[in-house]
C-alpha cells in the first residue's frame, strides 16, 4: 500500500484521531512532517498514547516549531527557514500514515503549501471532513484542489455528528470511491480507537 496522507478541510476536524485509527488498523508507522507548538504534547505523542499494537513506529518530525501558529509564521518566529527539499518519506518497510497540519492551503513558506508537500511526496490522500455550516463548500473545494494537482484521493472521512444532507451532496459531487463515518467520541483510548477501525472495513487498505 502507498503511504496515506491524512489532511483536513480545516483545523480541528479530527486529523489526529483519524490518523490514530488508521495507524492501529493497519499496524502502520506514523509521521508528522511538521509540528507547530505543543511540543511536549505533540500529535505524535497523542497518536502514540492511542495506539496499542507493538508494530507501529513513530518517526521524528522534520520540523519542530515552538509557536502554535501556521507553520510559516511559527518558522519565522523561530528564525527557521522551511526548505521543501528536505522532506522525504521515512525509510520503512511498513505501511505509513502521514498527518498534515491544518488544511491543504496551509503555508509552510511563502511559496510552499501543504498541498505542494503532498504532491512532492507522490502519495494518496485521506480527506477528513466535519459537518458544520460551510463544510460542504470547504470539502468540495478541497476535492477540487486535490484533483487540479492530480493528487489521488483514497477516501473521505466524516468525523463527528452525521448530517445526511451535507454528506449526500459531498458523496454525489465528489465521486470519491471510499467514505467512512466516525461517530463523536466522549472517551478516546486505545480500545475505542481499535474498535473504530471497523468503520474502514469496506475500504481497500
Can you give me a brief rundown of this structure?
By secondary structure, the chain is α/β, with parallel strands linked by helices. Helices cover 33% and strands 20% of the residues. It has a single domain (4-200), classed as P-loop containing nucleotide triphosphate hydrolases (Rossmann fold).
Percent of residues in β-strands: 15-25%
* Adjacency order of strands in the biggest sheet: 4-2-6-1-7-8-9
What's the level 1 CATH class?
Alpha Beta
Helix-strand pattern, N to C?
EHEEHEEHEHEHEHEH
Topology:
Elements (H helix, E strand, L loop, with lengths): L3 E5 L6 H12 L2 E3 L2 E3 L6 H8 L7 E2 L3 E3 L5 H7 L18 E8 L10 H8 L2 E6 L5 H14 L4 E7 L4 H11 L3 E5 L7 H7 L9
Parallel strand pairs: 1-6, 1-7, 2-4, 2-6, 3-5, 7-8, 8-9
3D structure, described in words:
- This protein is of the alpha/beta class and 205 residues long.
- The protein has one domain: P-loop containing nucleotide triphosphate hydrolases (Rossmann fold, 3-Layer(aba) Sandwich).
- Helix content is 33%, strand content 20%.
- The protein has a 7-stranded parallel β-sheet with strand order 4-2-6-1-7-8-9, with helices on both faces.
- Helix 5 links the parallel strand 7 and strand 8 (153-159).
- Helix 1 (15-26) crosses helix 2 (43-50).
- The chain is globular and about 45 Å long.
- The mean pLDDT is 97.
Amino acid at each position: 500500500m502507498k503511504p496515506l496522507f491524512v489532511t483536513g478541510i480545516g483545523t480541528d476536524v479530527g486529523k489526529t484521531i483519524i490518523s490514530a485509527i488508521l495507524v492501529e488498523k493497519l499496524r502502520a508507522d506514523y509521521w508528522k512532517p511538521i509540528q507547530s507548538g505543543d511540543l511536549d504534547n505533540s500529535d505524535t505523542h497523542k497518536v502514540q498514547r492511542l495506539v496499542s499494537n507493538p508494530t507501529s513506529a513513530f518517526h521524528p518530525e522534520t520540523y519542530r516549531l515552538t509557536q502554535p501558529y501556521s507553520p510559516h509564521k511559527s518558522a519565522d518566529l523561530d528564525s527557521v527557514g522551511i526548505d521543501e527539499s528536505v522532506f522525504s518519506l521515512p525509510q520503512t518497510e511498513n505501511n505509513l500514515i502521514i498527518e498534515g497540519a491544518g488544511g491543504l492551503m496551509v503555508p509552510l513558506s511563502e511559496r510552499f503549501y501543504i498541498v505542494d508537500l503532498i504532491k512532492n511526496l507522490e502519495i494518496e490522500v485521506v480527506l477528513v471532513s466535519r459537518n458544520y455550516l460551510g463544510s460542504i463548500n470547504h470539502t468540495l473545494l478541497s476535492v477540487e484542489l486535490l484533483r487540479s494537482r492530480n493528487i489521488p484521493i483514497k477516501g473521505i472521512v466524516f468525523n463527528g455528528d452525521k448530517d445526511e444532507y451535507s454528506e449526500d451532496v459531498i458523496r454525489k459531487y465528489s465521486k470519491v470511491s471510499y467514505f467512512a463515518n466516525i461517530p463523536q467520541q466522549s472517551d478516546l483510548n486505545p480500545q475505542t480507537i481499535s474498535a473504530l477501525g471497523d468503520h474502514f472495513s469496506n475500504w481497500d487498505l
